[in-house]
Protein: Transport protein YdiK
Organism: Methylobacterium jeotgali
Amino acid sequence: MDTIPRPVITPADPPRARGQGVARVLLVVALAALGLWILRAFLPALAWALILAIALGPLYARAERRWPPGRHNVLLPALFTLAVALVFLAPLALLAVQAAREAHDVLELARGLERDGLPVPDVLTRLPFLSAQAVAWWQANLAHPAAGSELLHRFDNGSVIDLSRNLGKQIVHRSVLFGFCLVALFFLFREREALAAQALVAADRLFGPRGERVGRQMVASVHGTVDGLVLVGLGEGAILGVVYFFAGVPHPVLLGALTAVAATIPFGAPLVFGLAAVLLLAAGSTGAAIVVVAAGIVVTFVADHFVRPALIGGTTKLPFLWVLLGILGGVESFGLLGLFLGPAVMAALVLLWRDFTGATREPA
């Protein structure tokens, strides 16, 4: 029986090997670009899931040592993912309940505005200058019923319907992205050790030992940014929330929560405690407004000039100027996601620069 001869495989000559290497690189680049294009709508959700997994990594590792995972490793990742979901959903639920409670008051205010016009606020009568002119303008334009009716009818039904439709689309879109982020976070928790080992191997093969150093530096920058922005922002919101309560600011808990969110962005907290001071001025509490502004300035000054530089700069090994530029530039480029991406990129660039220049001493 005749046998089919097998082809003799000989080593490829160098030009052919180089051509195959170039083809492989082009194929990998094309597939990576295609994959990113397919996932482009979900990339922010994936990035948020990765940042949350990195930020909560030490806490998850501690819990994993305390309660070792079982065969399927489902319970602990599910509990951590559920906790993250509650952290985001609980404040939204409280805001929805508060809005539902005050919807009746808003409706009555709208009816009164259409019936009687908008009365002159007391704050205009207390202005140190131009008080008479401001009151006269208000009475001529807003205080009579016709002006209130005209103001309300500017919002026609078509505008309200379009606004509601667009708002509904945005809510559905954000909800889908948030759900996808939670699913991705669950699998990142569940496979954290395998993914971390694969990332280290990939970094070593692509960039050598320097790649692992850059990756670890970027992870450290995320930890430092979370500590310096999120935790410090929560502390600012809690302290100023207490100040709001004793100063008599309306809805101190809500304004304290808004202060905590705004404080995660440098120079964002003054917008909220400035609003609280304006509310107190409108109510005639000038002394309380001064106290709120003074307390806000002191708290934000200490946080921005002492606490944050120590937490972020000490972890990322970056001068705080570069941290600040990374945060502001990241927010400008990527929104809230840039709060964490910006310092991570700056940390990687500074590390590469120090390796390239052979600098061992870190600038102050």
